[in-house]
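Quick note —
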Amino acid sequence: MLANRLEKRSTMKRDFFGDSYDAVKRMWCEILSGWARLYAEPRFIPTELHQAFTRLTGIPMLADYRPETYSILNDPDTGIRLPNERTQGTSRKHIAITAIANQLQSNGVRCVVTFDQSFIRSRNLTPIDQRHSKMDRLRKEGFPSFYYVSHAPFLFAAPDEETLEELRTLLVNAGIPNDKRLENLK
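Predicted structure written out below.
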């Protein structure tokens, strides 16, 4: 039974490997390359896909050795758990806000980029409300953030406001429309 569940989790990631979301991840890698190179958190990517993922996206796996400055990509299958969900852990499908906050406290981290396509339809919160609740929780943890809103949504978080503004400037200078795609907490 456990082997079936593990195989199913791994198969889901393989089924989506090479989709347009991976092209967006490559774009983040290129935009961040001269500022704080992007490294993928390996727990979200099946071991057998590490090399292929790096070849496709240009994003190497995060290892024990950490550069002086760097960025982290979290690539859970689904996205970020809502702050008030009972299950707060991290799995291959989801990551908790507290895990992102912990990453932002690591030496040398300039930003954490997290894929987040999770939207709970059974709640009374709209997708915007859900994104804002996640950004609000990060803010309460002491970390500013914004969303890139698209078919492939990502949460960008930084250790402080100044670093977040540098990041926003990088994205805007790369051509990302600030007023259409970058969503702030209001």
